[in-house]
Write a structure and sequence with these properties.
alpha/beta, two-stranded antiparallel sheet, 14 strands, globular, disordered C terminus
């Protein structure tokens, strides 16, 4: 039976164990979207994870959706991230960066450029964005043109090359949680009538093109994707979730690994497992009314044969040395829900963008 402490290799990324640190937005980037010494310390503390997946990192200025989130589209950002990757590698860890374009989530007051958010269609997201002046409604986004879609695909590829230059072991493309790629996938956010809207084949096109561009830029063996089937976060209604992922998953290129973030959707996760022949990481939901997913949850996922590794968020947040504690059977520090769900975000509530 596979153990959480068995080694495994995902493409060109060797993992010393199968406990993956899930991506968790912390809003700690410095001026200009650069990584900071605090971020380097934070990730290095968790280098005993088999693999670290970073917080969502914008591939372009227009991809930013929150205050104080990092980017990978400028040489200074590349240099700043190098301090993080060096710190993790010095402790024997492996780290991949999650590239996340927020799409219609955001507000012009968050950015020096005061840019307008973009989306597959000019449809504002319900809910509010936390800005320096308080909560404000998400504005109606600019509908991307075909040329702008192509430019966005190039932005992802360029950011992936920057990630390799910054010393990352790989890249994860974020295609869930109601951000741009997920907005193209979902029926309620994609009302296009061109090659990127309408049919399932058209709605998955952008996600597939972005993934293929990243894989071409840095190699399939360093590329991964995160999905969150059925996730309604950021005002998303996918439509027929089963049919959507039955179309998307087989259309993806070969990857180092695919990650599924469960939103209490184990049957969908099993369907993805059946469709995906490569390495699969599952970020499991906890038991109903429980917080968070535990080490026992992770063991159960492996015992079920559902995944090749398990990603955990809140438990890694509260226990930087989580693999050692799991091996010893505890003790575990209980995560602070206030900090996890918003306290460390200075008021931002970004739950599903975090790992569990």
């Amino acid at each position: 039976m596979t153990s959480l402490f068995d080694s495994v290799t995902f493409g060109k990324i060797p993992l010393a164990n199968r406990l993956v640190m899930a991506p968790m937005t912390r809003n700690r980037a410095g001026a200009g979207g650069g990584a900071t010494e605090l971020m380097a310390e934070y990730y290095a503390q968790r280098a005993s994870a088999g693999l670290i997946i970073t917080e969502g990192t914008q591939p372009s200025p227009v991809g930013q959706g929150f205050l104080n989130t990092p980017g990978l589209h400028h040489p200074e950002q590349v240099r700043a991230w190098r301090t993080v990757t060096d710190a993790v590698h010095e402790r024997g860890g492996r780290i991949v960066v999650q590239l996340m374009h927020a799409g219609r989530i955001g507000h012009p007051s968050l950015y020096d450029s005061a840019h307008r958010s973009v989306a597959p269609s000019a449809l504002a997201a319900a809910g509010v964005c936390f800005t320096p002046s308080g909560p404000q409604d998400h504005p109606v986004p600019h509908e991307l043109t075909a040329d702008e879609i192509a430019a966005t695909v190039r932005d992802f590829a360029d950011a992936a090359r920057n990630a390799v230059e910054a010393g990352f072991d790989g890249v994860q493309v974020h295609a869930g949680n109601g951000f741009l790629l997920h907005q193209f996938l979902a029926e309620n956010t994609n009302h296009r009538t061109d090659a990127y809207g309408g049919s399932l084949g058209n709605r998955i096109r952008f996600a597939v093109e972005v993934t293929e561009a990243v894989a071409t830029a840095i190699g399939n063996e360093r590329t991964s994707v995160r999905l969150s089937p059925g996730n309604p976060y950021n005002d998303i209604a996918e439509g027929d979730t089963d049919a959507l992922y039955a179309a998307l998953v087989p259309a993806l290129p070969e990857l180092a690994f695919l990650e599924v973030c469960e939103i209490v959707t184990r049957p969908v996760t099993r369907a993805v497992r059946d469709l995906w022949r490569g390495n699969l990481v599952v970020n499991p939901h906890a038991a109903p009314d429980a917080f968070p997913a535990t080490a026992e949850t992770a063991r159960n996922v492996l015992d079920e044969g559902l995944a090749d590794a398990v990603s955990l968020g809140a438990l890694f947040l509260a226990n930087p040395d989580l693999p050692d504690r799991v091996r010893a059977g505890g003790p575990f520090t209980a995560p602070d829900e206030a900090t996890y769900y918003g306290g460390d975000h200075r008021g931002y509530t970004d739950y599903p963008a975090l790992g569990r």
